Amino acid sequence: MGSNALGARPQRSPRRRLAVAAVTASTALSLLTASGAAHGLTDHQSEAATISRGAVEAEHAGFTGTGYVDYDNAFGGYVEYSVTAARAGTHALVFRYANGSDTDRPLALTVDGARAGVVPFPGTGGWATWRDVTAPVRLRAGVNRVRATATTAAGGPNADRLVVDDTDTEPPTPPRDLRATDRSETSVSLAWGAAADDVGVVGYDVYQHGQLMTSVPGTTLSATVTGLRPDTAYDWTVFARDAAPNVSQASNNVVVRTDAPPPDDEPPTAPGGLRPAGKSPTSVSLAWEAATDNVGVTGYVVHRDGVQVGTTDGPSTTVTGLSAGTGYRFAVRARDAAGNLSPFSDEVILAPGGTAPPGEPRPGAVTTLREGTDVPWGLAFLPDGTALVSERERFTLYRLAPDGTRTDVGRVPGAQGTNGEGGVLGVELSPAFATDRHVFIYHTTSSGNQVVRARLIGETLTGWTTILSGLPKNRYHNGGRLRFSPDGRYLFVSTGDAQNGSYGQNLDTNAGKILRIHPDGSIPADNPFPGKAIWSYGHRNVQGLDFDSQGRLWATEFGNNSLDELNLITRGGNYGWPGCEGTQGYCEGSIPPKRMWPTTAGGPSGLAIVNDHLFVGTTVGKRLYRLRIEGSELVEEAVYLQGEYGRLRTVEVDPEGDLWVTTTWDLDEEVGNDRVLHVDLEYPGS
Asked: What are the GO MF terms of this UniProt record (predicted)?
């Protein structure tokens, strides 16, 4: 974390200036021309620009070039850069700056005197702490005068340089006149007019109500989509792409109904393998093998105790509104487009119930289950009540029994540490572990972080398969928590920003995100950003994930140097980093946390939810927080174990309704001497 010392910029003495108050634009242009940088990424040092009401300084370390511009503490000072653009269009202007105050110092941008917007420059934590701010600005081909003017009496930030990205950011125009040219029972053919682009269209993407169905090259102005349902209305749009790639706005939409099928009186086959896939105190999740049909299965009908209680499109569902401890009989039938119903599946008898009794969970006695373990980071319970534990720095997993007995089950192939927060991190079991024996593990490799899947056969992990790779790594900020959704269909993965704050807002990288994938690593079609694993963004370093009784996802997040966060995660939500930390900084458009702690009292890592009470283990605060969910807010915060067991890393609920908590060594402690603790939870009134 950076320094907590924020303060106003000290006034300068004119004797400390290293340059006169103005450098001519012609000088800046000659420097640029000499560099040969007329396209691509071009670097413009602020000390070589035209300066008004500011001076070139070199007092604070970390700048590039020969110095930086220190704006006067006054309104109207500016730095004007001479920028040569190889093409007309929108360009990304990246300003490198430092702002050691706690006050935003926005700059107004103009291009050749025309207004181009106002860019915020929030505090960076110190005058020697440099960050980047990016602004999309339209430039003309040739030389442009880009001026950044202070808009407040505080003046501007310390300006190090301007990097201009000449990469194409201009999207194509929308495709025109989308229309249907043919249809059948299971297909629709479409055609459209060409889109226009300043560089060139390379492809068209055909969507049906937000789902990508097919893509064609930029020279093709038609497509046929197959595999559709008969007698069904589909809503079509087309998008154009250029090579950057920039994506156009949508074409006009056209609704096409597929042809009705001929009469069908053949029912589907009965669904097979009906089985439990999870449960809570008031719900049961079911899964089964897909049925077959001569035309096609369109859905399933779910029965409880002989009465229909729901329908679903795919071979799984969750039945809610049940009573804990009561057994229910479940069976499923398949249905085709003609309404024919299959025979019933085999019947299963299931009783809802969670890992905890009802009531308010209160931490009680603490017992050490295991000492001398190395950074026990991930922990997941097996059906027999033992737990799989990962050791971050030793790259191993072992099985830990409630009596403290340890049995090694394997070392993760290719795992590496980072001399910081990398290594073997999160562990999660498949919801169908009883049948598939799958274990999911998040770990660091030489090329980045990744998620792998293995099978636990006896006491050995085998059959290693990578399902998600290419997650940026660094010494710190590697994320690493895994958590299946309550229905068992999706695996959520938390990542860190790999110490590159700009990744938080960059939707072209999985760093600084919460991801949502299928258990095989494929991307769900209903993710908020088509073709991407990203579920939410704007995160710094998320290390805790869990779901409440309503199926809502909560996450803990490490702050930088002011505020840690506890967030309620929504689909496609932006949680602000790096511009916003907690509720400080530039937070417009971001979702505020439900709870914040000063970074000196937090460091929130592990998260477990019991009866809608959140338990948060903290590293810096060395305490266990408990908060109760009321609606969408958090109330009744309580603190346990404060300072008694050191840095707390992971919190999980065992099959008996108690907590297992792991510890993480501190700088003044012996490496490899961490513990796994058992915390009794009492449930008064249960």
From this structure: carbohydrate binding; hydrolase activity, acting on glycosyl bonds
Could you give the CA distance from residue 472 to residue 665 in angstroms, rounded to a whole number? 25
Expressed as residue numbers, the domain containing 65 is 14-165
Residues 596, 670 within the same domain: yes
pLDDT tens per residue, range 237-256 = 999 998 878 899 999 999 99
- Strands across the sheet containing 513-517: 482-484, 491-494, 513-517, 534-537
Give dist(CA 225, CA 477) in Å, integer.
Answer: 43
Is the pLDDT assigned to residue 27 strictly greater than 50? no
Q: Which residue in this structure is represented by tokens 């996450």?
A: 555
In a domain, 518, yes or no: yes
Amino acid at 468: L
Q: Peptide bond preceding 578: is omega within 30 degrees of 0, i.e. cis? A: yes
User: What one-character DSSP code corresponds to residue 88?
Assistant: S
Residues ≥6 apart with Cβ < 8 Å to 453: 438, 439, 440, 441, 464, 465, 467, 519
Provide the token pair at 155: 């003046």
Q: How many domains does the chain have?
A: 4
Whether the per-residue pLDDT at 1 is higher than 80: the answer is no
For residue 365 the two structure tokens come to 């006695």
Task: State how far the Cα of 569 lies from the Cα of 307, in Å rounded to an integer.
Answer: 35
Q: Contact, 640 vs 628, CB < 8 A?
A: no
Tens of pLDDT, residue by residue over 141-180, are: 899 999 999 999 999 999 999 999 877 778 899 999 999 9
List, in sequence order, every beta strand (DSSP E) within 243-306: 254-257, 272-280, 283-289, 297-304
Strand order from edge to edge, sheet including 283-289 = 272-280, 283-289, 316-319
Q: How far is Cα 24 from Cα 169, in angstroms, rounded to an integer?
A: 30
